[in-house]
Amino acid sequence: MSPILIYFLVLDALTKDENADRQLIKLRHPRTNELAIFLYSENDKTIAQMRSLPLSHRSFFKGNDVIPIDRIDFVTLVDPMFLFLPYFVKCSSMFCPLDQILVDESLPELNNLLMKLSELANLKQIAAKKEVGDLILWQYNENKTLEWLMPKIEKVSKVLAAQQINVNQNAAISSSFKVCETRLQATDEQYKRYAYNIISEYLHIDIQKSLLKHLGLPEIVECNKRKADENKSDVIKKVKHKEVEYEEMPLQVIKNITPKLTAKDKALKKAASGTKSISSFFKKNV
């Protein structure tokens, strides 16, 4: 049995200090709510997500050897604020203490970890703060959240434009290939929409809709309409096929029409009457 080879792609910022206190932790993904693996460093005050890209029939060369790759794991830094958004949205109806907001009912063991991670983020960017005596209360604020997300969209959009990433949805050319000079330049709206799609990977669907509206980008409905038309066409085809296949066809009665005899045919028929067949001459007499 051949060994399984996993290839890791790690940012340089996460490998400079070999004695860093990095540890693997499990947290809920802010968009899917499923558990995901993150790399956390309390000293560096950083958190990064471990993401896996399964590969089949892939390999790379090391000297004269061909080494197969079963999976590539890459680590990407994540703003911890994204991790807290679902918890704040869930308790958005009123001001609450932070330890009552960052609560995971299904996995209580995450509560202390979430409170520790909250020290890495500036919660005022997504929530309103109120102090009542010694008690500090928080409440989710959508306007603040959208204003916090806007610079991220602009930053990603500028990087896409600077690196001339092909953001055309209908394009079949990989961004790893050299960009052709004759290629049509993408518009600011296309770069902004592509950046929005990247940021939305860490946003709940409700926040995605609000952000799209805040950016002034119209929703794309052409693909859905085309898909609906295709589904409608398939239904019509199935109905037509069913009617042809199972419909009872009416029976047609074919009437035998005797052709009219000419004068010559009548004369031959009269001459042949009373004569014997030639095969009768070869019958054996009993």
Radius of gyration using CA atoms only: 38 Å
> What low-confidence regions span 5 or more consecutive residues with pLDDT below 50?
171-182, 244-248
Q: How confident is the prediction overall: mean pLDDT? A: 76
Give the N-to-C terminal Cα separation: 90 Å
Order of helices and strands: EEEEEHEHHEEHHHHH
How many distinct helices? 8
Number of strands: 8
What is the molecular shape?
elongated
- Major β-sheet, in short? 5 strands, mixed
Quick description:
The chain is of the alpha+beta class and 286 residues long. The protein has helices at residues 81-90, 98-101, 111-117, 142-162, 188-199, 205-215, 222-246, 263-272, and strands at 6-9, 22-28, 35-41, 46-62, 65-77, 96-97, 127-132, 135-140.
Question: What does this protein structure show overall?
Answer:
This protein is α+β, with helices and mostly antiparallel strands. It is built from 8 helices and 8 strands, in the order E-E-E-E-E-H-E-H-H-E-E-H-H-H-H-H. It has helices at 81-90, 98-101, 111-117, 142-162, 188-199, 205-215, 222-246, 263-272; strands at 6-9, 22-28, 35-41, 46-62, 65-77, 96-97, 127-132, 135-140. Strands 1-5-4-3-2 form a 5-stranded mixed sheet, with no helix packed on it. A hairpin with a 2-residue loop joins strand 4 and strand 5. The radius of gyration is 38 Å and the shape is elongated.
